[in-house]
Amino acid sequence: MSFYYNRFPVSWFCFECGIIGGFVSIQQRLKKVEDEELEYLSQSWIAILVNPIFGGLFALVLYVLFLSGIIESALFPKFAIPEFKGQPFPTTDDLRYFFTTTYPASGSDFAKLAFWSFVAGFSERLVPQMIQRVAKNDDKNGE
What we know:
This protein is mostly helical. 67% of the residues lie in helices and 3% in strands. The protein contains six helices and two strands.
C-alpha cells in the first residue's frame, strides 16, 4: 500500500484501524439493543457510520498524542521522527516531510500503533478520557 511518494500512509492506517474498531464495537453492542433501536439503525446509515467515523478520528487524535510525546509508556509505540530543517520556524515542506517520513521505530511499535488505533475506535470513551487526564495534569502543573 503506497500512495504518497511510495510511502506507507501511517495516519490513514490509524484512521482505518479506528474505523474497524468502531464497527466491531457496534457489532458487540447489537446483542443488547432493543427492537426499536434496531429498527432505527436499519433505516439510517448515518446512525451506523457515526461511531466508526468517530473511532477513526479518535485514532488520529491518539496518533498525534503519541507523536507529541504527551503520553508515553512501554505499552505505547515509539516513533522515528525527523528533525525540522527550517529554522527558526518549521516550513510547509518541514510539515510535509514530517508526516511522510515519521514511522513507528520498530515492528513491535507498528503493532502497538495498530492495536491502540483499533482500541481508540472500539472504546469510544478512551481517547476523551486521555485528553481529560492530560488537561487536568496540565492545569495542575500550570498552577
